[in-house]
């Protein structure tokens, strides 16, 4: 890596991203992607359109859930959605091209992490390891595969650029005239590889450090900060990271007060623009956000921090709802894993010659994780904090290797190889699981189109036993080019979700009672709306966490009555419709272990 370290780093990152993520290209649109795709395509290049494109319809918007309606999730991300509109336009509105753009953003973020790690520890080899850790961390798979998460990739890239630009302005890497790498090896300007180290060019008093150039770097960092806030809300935490950096690198934080003031002005301007665009500060309720006044808030925040920490350092997948619930029911596993991760970080700090500088990646993880802790758990939340994890772990491996060939260096090298192979395989496997989820949605759409009656404008589609991963099936029907139904207004209604995530593992039952009544019975041994996932669904529907026999819910098209329920969930439900089940605008689809959405009561179908 002596002559062309960046080129070699790019080669390593490119190979790892190709091995772990290239399979994302043909996966198409999935879940939230459908809403963004339609809103971007129906919109224009205006500011208002970019703001509106970030909205996500939830209960009662995408598909009706027992006539319960929510306002949807409203975000302020105009920069990200302008960029996504550019990408869609360049790609001819083909999802495969959008996945290529996601890979490009991910490669950019990985390379910037490598550059940041080099600036922190002064070793190109270990900086490349840091870049590789971000490139194939299995916790980042969905962030790269899922087009909707491009906002996270963009925000991370802009935050990294803002940080590197500000560091150049403040002289972080020059403070004291030597780098952490120099302090470790005792050399004065040459790394072990023979490449000049960051900071070897002099200190803050260097004559080459002209004031106009430094101001230019500050302006550039503020521009990147503004762009990052326009992509993801938690980017607003960046100034806190910068204050920590000025202290860590002894850059004289008092001399940068006016820079902090500029950052505060930008943050306030962002908040005011957000308030004006969204008509206030809309916050989602449960299960999407836990408020401080709710019982159990402190423990929830602590457990969430622990869950995210072991997700980063233990490569444990962060799964919405079920993942954290699973570990909370097994406290020895949850807290034991965290103790192990914390002990590893403590060991790195105790032995590393860069320990002061490593406060920066530790602060990075903490600062960008904090605003996400009250929010619904999601794997893409790990991406921006993952920058800090990659730098910390690479520094730990570099510390283990030391400066001379020997047993320690051999062990560190073997660990690098194990990580490269193991994480690539883990990322590929998690990508395969993601692809399996997208196929569920595709299978539901296929059954509706190929097996059911033709769909007309204004028709109502009722789903029984639909998998939760197919919640966006109706928007998907309109977005898929092969359906030819993009101009038709279809109304989706979910009568029951499958008790299993992907499909029905056991058969359920539906009985038609007269012209207007259905009775749906759950498979033996399970219930609808059971477990952590079921409780979350009921909370999203604005209903109690458990349902009891005899409860009734009314809506414009049908009424629902719970006929049988116990601690495991709802066993039987009655649906009484206002119009006959054979009404021409009604389409019923039944999920079973054989078919995801088998059409009922149409021409040629049995009653």
Major sheet summary line: 5 strands, mixed
The total domain count is 2
Distance between the termini: 71 Å
Rg (CA only): 27 Å
Structural class: alpha/beta
Flag low-confidence runs: 176-212, 603-607
- Molecular shape: globular
Number of strands: 10
Question: Secondary-structure element sequence?
Answer: HHHEHHHHHHHHHHHHHHHEHEEEHEEEEE
Query: What spatial order of strands do you see in the largest sheet?
Result: 1-3-2-9-10
- Which percent bin holds the helix content? 40-55%
| Range of strand content | 5-15%
Q: Kindly state the mean pLDDT as a whole number?
A: 86
Please work out how many helical segments DSSP would assign: 20
Structural commentary:
- The protein is of the alpha/beta class.
- It has two domains: 107-203 and 210-403, no CATH class; 436-600, no CATH class.
- Helices cover 51% and strands 9% of the residues.
- The strands form two sheets. A five-stranded mixed β-sheet has the order 1-3-2-9-10, with helices on one face.
- A hairpin with a 3-residue loop joins strand 6 and strand 7 (558-566).
- Helix 17 (383-401) runs antiparallel to helix 18.
- Mean pLDDT is 86; it is low at 176-212 and 603-607.
């Amino acid at each position: 890596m002596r002559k062309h370290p960046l080129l070699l780093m790019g080669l390593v990152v490119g190979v790892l991203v190709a091995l772990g993520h290239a399979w994302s290209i043909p996966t198409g649109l999935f879940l939230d992607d459908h809403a963004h795709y339609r809103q971007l395509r129906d919109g224009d290049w205006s500011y208002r359109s970019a703001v509106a494109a970030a909205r996500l319809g939830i209960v009662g918007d995408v598909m009706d859930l027992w006539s319960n309606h929510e306002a949807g999730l409203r975000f302020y991300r105009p920069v990200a959605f302008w960029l996504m509109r550019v990408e869609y336009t360049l790609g001819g509105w083909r999802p495969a091209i959008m996945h290529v753009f996601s890979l490009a953003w991910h490669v950019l973020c990985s390379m910037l992490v490598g550059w940041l790690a080099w600036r922190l520890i002064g070793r190109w080899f270990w900086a490349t390891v840091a870049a590789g850790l971000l490139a194939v961390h299995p916790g980042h798979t969905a962030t790269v595969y899922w087009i909707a998460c491009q906002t996270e990739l963009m925000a991370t890239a802009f935050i990294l650029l803002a940080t590197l630009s500000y560091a150049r302005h403040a002289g972080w890497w020059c403070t004291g005239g030597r780098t952490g790498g120099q302090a470790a090896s005792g050399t004065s300007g040459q790394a072990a590889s023979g490449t000049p180290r960051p900071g070897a060019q002099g200190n803050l008093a260097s004559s080459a450090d002209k004031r106009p150039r430094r101001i230019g770097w500050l302006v550039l960092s503020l521009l990147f900060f503004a762009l990052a806030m326009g992509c993801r809300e938690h980017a607003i935490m960046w100034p806190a990271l910068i204050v920590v950096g000025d202290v860590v690198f002894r850059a004289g934080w008092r001399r940068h007060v006016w820079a902090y003031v500029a950052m505060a002005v930008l943050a306030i301007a962002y908040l005011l623009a957000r308030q004006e665009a969204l008509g206030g500060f809309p916050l989602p309720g449960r299960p999407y956000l836990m408020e401080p006044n709710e019982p159990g808030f402190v423990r929830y925040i602590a457990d969430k921090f622990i869950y995210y920490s072991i997700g980063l350092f233990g490569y444990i997948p962060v799964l919405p709802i079920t993942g954290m619930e699973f570990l909370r029911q097994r406290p020895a596993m949850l807290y034991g894993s965290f103790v192990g991760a914390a002990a590893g970080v403590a060991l790195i700090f105790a032995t590393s010659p860069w320990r002061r500088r490593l406060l920066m990646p530790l602060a990075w993880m903490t600062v960008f994780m904090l605003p996400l802790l009250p929010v619904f758990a999601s794997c893409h939340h790990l991406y921006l904090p993952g920058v800090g994890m990659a730098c910390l772990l690479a520094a730990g491996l570099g510390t283990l290797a030391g400066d001379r060939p020997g047993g320690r260096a051999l062990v560190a090298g073997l660990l690098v190889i194990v990580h490269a192979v193991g994480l690539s395989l883990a990322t590929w496997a998690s990508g395969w699981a993601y692809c399996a989820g997208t196929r569920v949605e595709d299978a539901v759409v296929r059954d509706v189109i190929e097996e059911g009656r033709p769909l007309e404008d204004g028709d109502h589609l009722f789903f029984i036993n639909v998998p939760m991963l197919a919640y966006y099936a109706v928007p998907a029907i309109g977005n898929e080019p092969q359906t030819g139904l993009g101009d038709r207004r279809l109304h989706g209604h979910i009568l029951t979700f499958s008790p299993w995530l992907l499909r029905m593992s056991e058969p359920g039952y539906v009985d038609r009672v007269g012209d207007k009544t259905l009775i749906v019975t759950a498979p033996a041994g399970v219930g609808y709306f059971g477990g952590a996932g079921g409780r979350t669904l009921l909370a999203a529907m604005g209903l109690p966490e458990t349902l009891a026999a005899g409860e009734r819910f009314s809506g414009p098209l049908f009424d629902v009555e719970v006929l049988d329920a116990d601690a495991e969930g709802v066993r039987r439900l009655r649906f009484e419709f206002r119009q006959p089940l054979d009404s021409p605008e009604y389409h019923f689809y039944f999920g079973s272990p054989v078919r995801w959405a088998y059409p009922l009561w149409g021409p040629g179908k049995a009653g």
